[in-house]
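Deliverable D4.2, example record:
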Amino acid sequence: MSRPLVITDCDEVLLYMVSHFRDWLGEEEGVTFTMGNGEFVQAMRYAESGEPVAPEDIWRLLNTFFDGQMHRQTPVTGAVEAIAALGDHADIVVLTNLMDFRQEARTRQLRDHGIDLRVYTNQGPKGPALKAILDEYRPSRAVFIDDLAQHHDSVSEAAPHVDRLHLCAEPLLAPHIACAHEAGHAHARIDDWSDALPWLIGRLNRDDDKEQEEK
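Output generated by the structure prediction step:
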């Protein structure tokens, strides 16, 4: 019988991104980043004029960061140890929304931090990509971890049997983003690995008979 499978996002789950992006914007691009209303596209303004950064320039800046600044990213507190512990219970893969040509860089980046996992890249909603991963691995059960509510919504539609954990470890974002658990698209919202790990292990090892009783 195949092993369980954990499918996890990277940024703000395994590696901090926004805090390093913010620092780089201020140091190199003359842009401030203040997440105050839950809207990423409204968080960025030119420091000199106070004018908002246009959407096309936001994408340009994000691409510039991922092309040349990924070395700034650091592991989320507890993530390296948690992934190692989860490996005793399940196979683990990364599903990250980056352009496909960055797959090798992301794989290498994670490996350099002690997280040696297979990486799948994706653009757009993650439900179809996750479904393709399930078709490949055919796990006995699966858990999905992501920091953005829209991806839990997508996965809940494409693979409703998959357990879903909303985890956003970045304090700059966590208080301001929509909660997938409150929306009914995730089974739990836990923003730190010390509490997330036992929840995940419990889900991965849950007895099938008990699961049927809970339903």
